[in-house]
Amino acid sequence: MASIIPSRLLVLAFSLLLLLPSFSLAHQRRPHHFRGKRDKITYHGGGLLTGNINLVLIWYGNFDQPTKDTVKSFIDSFNFDYKGYHHSQPTVAKWWNLVENYQSAAWPRGVRKKSKVKVIREVSEQCYWGKILTMDFIPKLVQKAVGGTPNTVAVLFTAKDVAVHGLCTGKCQLHGILKKKQPYIVVGNSEIECPGSCMWPFHSSEYFPRGGVVLKSPNGNAVGDSMVVHLASGLAELVTNPGNTGFYGGTKYKPIEITGGRCRNVFGKRASAKKGRPGILRYAYGGKAFNAYGKYGKKFLLPALHNPKTRGCTTL
User: Fold this and answer.
1) What 3-state DSSP class applies to 123?
2) Rg of the Cα atoms in the chain
3) Closest CA to 164 of 199, 130, 113, 123
4) Helices 222-240, 65-76: crossing angle, 10 deg rounding
5) CA–CA–CA angle 118, 121, 116 (5° rounding)
6) Among 143, 163, 200, 263, which is least packed, fewest CB within 10 Å?
7) pLDDT tens digits, the chain, 316 residues: what are they?
8) How far apart are CA 176 and CA 35, in angstroms?
9) Coil/strand/helix, residue 282
10) Residue 229 near residue 303 (C-beta atoms within 8 A)
11) Per-domain residue ranges for the chain?
């Protein structure tokens, strides 16, 4: 079962981390500091999500099947058995291992617990709550979809004609903890609302000179592939900073999380986030860009992460 472990019960927390089969919010008292060249990522002693990550996918509005398939193939790639795919490296699982390294960084003497990320339910929801979603409605939508099922992370995807308050203004995904300790992620569809902000590098950017380098999406579905980028960011940041008391730099009110700061808009080595160069990548037939292999040879483009061991920005 999942549990929330207060810092004063540290000994009990370590015991539970070894026993619980589902995710939990585990704490460490002493902060640790990890510095990159520009950002400082600090562990603030709060909760991290550990154990299995059981996802409830909420499709809000009308989605085409290829977009759904792209997202679900990415999620299935976390636990895929890559035996027999020795030439398909690096993998989505290797990228996730970088995220799990934050547990080792928080608890240097502890035992890192491997987690499985899987979908346990899907819900298709028409626009009953309207086409402009705010944080007044999102908790109700999540509560209805989850239905009281414990140990879940709700992931809300919105269709292209739905706007989400708080997205497209420096953020392309939202995450956190709602009441009753319910973790959530919101991933918007930027096809119409803000392609110049949240669909790069599969669409020209309004922030880079000449729009930056525009790439062909790895699965030929710019909407689905950009959702994968933001879902990956949301999962990584939710696990390492679920309640804004885990790993982050900057300030509590404007945190820099592990896919942000100097790692934002970085996908490969020798990237230039200021000039709109995503970095050195791999290319499939037709010039489709990717940096990670998924199940059955599927390909994805995943964001760079602040690495607590190298204290820099790590790409696949």
Assistant:
1) strand
2) 19
3) 130
4) 40
5) 15
6) 143
7) 343 334 333 333 333 333 333 555 554 444 444 444 445 888 898 888 888 999 999 999 999 999 999 999 999 999 998 888 877 899 999 999 989 888 777 766 665 667 889 999 999 998 888 999 999 999 999 999 999 899 999 999 999 989 998 888 778 999 999 988 999 999 999 888 889 989 999 999 988 888 899 999 999 999 999 999 999 999 999 999 999 999 998 888 889 999 988 889 999 998 887 889 999 999 999 999 999 999 999 999 999 998 777 777 899 8
8) 24
9) strand
10) yes
11) 7-314
Contacts of 241 (CB under 8 A, 6+ apart): 46, 247, 248, 255, 257, 258
Tokens of 26: 């585990």
* CA pair distance 152, 87, nearest whole angstrom: 34
What burial class does residue 208 get, using C-beta atoms within 10 Å of its C-beta: 0-12 exposed, 13-18 middle, 19+ buried? buried
pTM reported for the whole predicted model: 0.88
Q: Which residues have C-beta within 8 Å of that of residue 285, sequence separation ≥ 6?
A: none
